[in-house]
Design brief:
By secondary structure, this protein is an all-alpha fold. It contains 7 helices and no strands. The longest helix has 18 residues. The radius of gyration is 13 Å and the shape is globular.
């Protein structure tokens, strides 16, 4: 499963760079939760450089708590470079971010 997830991550990263809409559509077809989380994390992390708001929404949809926290952290750090206020507003208003993570992200 980890080999499959790494392959899915690689595809998601590559596709997110060249065709984010197609990558998003593909991720929507993945039925295995672990593979979908892996693809969503890679997609979000890649998309954060060009569309952090969309990347943050995708990151929030990851169902594994640890993977979601890691991905949201990456996305928010990237987002703060271009629009700190929007990144902070996202952190403050997103229910999938627990209080401990919220405090770390707002520092």
């Amino acid at each position: 499963n980890s080999l499959r997830n790494r392959a899915v991550e690689s595809v998601a990263r590559t596709w997110a760079s060249s065709s984010p809409a197609a990558a998003a559509e593909w991720i929507g077809t993945i039925t295995d939760p672990a593979a979908r989380n892996a693809a969503t994390g890679a997609f979000s992390s890649t998309l954060a450089r060009t569309d952090p708001a969309t990347a943050a929404q995708w990151a929030s949809s990851i169902t594994d708590n640890g993977a979601r926290a890691k991905t949201i952290t990456r996305v928010v750090r990237e987002w703060k470079k271009s629009d700190t206020a929007a990144a902070v507003a996202f952190v403050q208003s997103t229910p999938s971010i627990d209080d401990n993570l919220r405090q770390r992200l707002l520092r």
